[in-house]
Amino acid sequence: MVPNTADTALWPAPHASGAVDATVHVPGSKSVTNRALVLAALASEPGWLRRPLRSRDTLLMAGALRAMGIEIEEGVGPDGTGEAWRVLPTGLRGPATVDVGNAGTVMRFLPPVAALADGPVRFDGDPRSYERPLNGVIDALRQLGARIDDDGRGALPLTVHGGGALDGGPVAIDASSSSQFVSALLLSGPRFNQGVEVRHTGATLPSLPHIRMTVDMLRAVGAQVDTPESGGEPNVWRVTPGALLGRDLVIEPDLSNAQPFLAAALVTGGRVTIPDWPARTTQPGDRLREIFTEMGGSCELTEYGLVFTGSGSIHGIDVDLSEVGELTPGIAAVAALADSPSTLRGVAHLRLHETDRLAALTKEINELGGDVTETADGLHIRPRRLHGGIFHTYDDHRMATAGAIIGLAVEGVQIENVATTAKTLPDFPDLWTGMLGA
Ligand SMILES: O=C(O)C1=C[C@@H](OP(=O)(O)O)[C@@H](O)[C@H](O)C1
Ligand SMILES: C=C(OP(=O)(O)O)C(=O)O
């Protein structure tokens, strides 16, 4: 069990007294860490994860894999530097019980893994996990030959009756509510008897960089993957059956969690350096270089990392965020402080994230005096002078960091349950006050 750290105390969001000038070491990527854990668990030899993210979502993933019989040793790396986890893929077992918390990656990526276990695996989680869509994964696994007991809503809780192996083959799903359906099937695909061919039939598909991340990481452990981008059919991904290698992988910093720190440079007209920003990455947070530059900053990517500088002005933006939906709360917070209106589009699926993020951002920014309206697929934000007040987080880590961004510029903002940042960034309050030189 990795408890949901809820803290009803109010956290006074620090107000910036001047331009920030800081270097912030951002911990590892949630999305990379959890994919690396799954791929290492499915491999045919041991592997290492170096600089993994240690947060609620990744500890839930590690706990779930351990419950299914995988050994994960937490320690320092082979060369003695930094934290490293050694994964020993010792066979997938049931019966087991998995707590997914409210982690999309755990609730979507692990049912296909459980189908390969040799007994039943029961999945349960936070109340919100019952509301997040899982139908794409459930329907697909049934098409591929798995037996699943659920209550027919296409969501948790459920039990996957692992049979030790899965036929696999072609499958058609609508992944318009979450790219994680596609990633989930591809990640386990090499271990299905016939591999897998995933055809997305919906009108839209969010978070494409996260699907590219899945494909890149599969290829890095030796899988053969055909994609629309490598000359295949549009909306079709194919994974050939085969053994996966155990690798020694250094996890990149979480660029989406770098967002509030970059925003601090933008909002205060200061400068923030993020060491180890990768020169090439599939992480959606890399798009911040372009988005926050359009909103008034400038950046330089050096061998050391990313140096981001604010100009003192913040401009509104009209942007389609469908590929990078998880950046929306932080962009909305900056947009609320800008000198012109913003329109954020292409993110209807955010209503099904940790909370209904479109409703939550609208309500909380407006309660501080803002002028935000929801559109069919996003937000329209007209900046107004904001005032202090309580910023509720709805158990959503990115709501907490969005509130902290506003607090830099607006005195008297108090974040309810800042501890919810533990989902992906447990050190957030310390990193934030450290950045401000407190
Ligand atoms: O695969 C992943 O690691 C993720 C995919 C995205 O999910 P959706 O496609 O459901 O938005 C993203 O929002 C989430 O934070 C992480
Ligand atoms: C949507 C998110 O998370 P999850 O992996 O739970 O879907 C997120 O981190 O913004």
From TrEMBL:
Residues noted as binding 3-phosphoshikimate in the record, renumbered to the chain: 30-31, 35, 178-180, 207, 326, 353
Domain of life the protein comes from: Bacteria
Residues that bind phosphoenolpyruvate: 30, 104, 132, 180, 357, 398, 423
Enolpyruvate transferase domain ranges (all copies): 17-430
Enzyme class: transferase
Location relative to the cell: Cytoplasm
Active site: 326 (proton acceptor)
Record has Transferase as a keyword: yes
Enzyme Commission numbers on file: 2.5.1.19
Reactions catalysed: 3-phosphoshikimate + phosphoenolpyruvate = 5-O-(1-carboxyvinyl)-3-phosphoshikimate + phosphate
Function: Catalyzes the transfer of the enolpyruvyl moiety of phosphoenolpyruvate (PEP) to the 5-hydroxyl of shikimate-3-phosphate (S3P) to produce enolpyruvyl shikimate-3-phosphate and inorganic phosphate.
Family to which this protein belongs: Belongs to the EPSP synthase family.
Protein name: 3-phosphoshikimate 1-carboxyvinyltransferase
The encoding gene: aroA
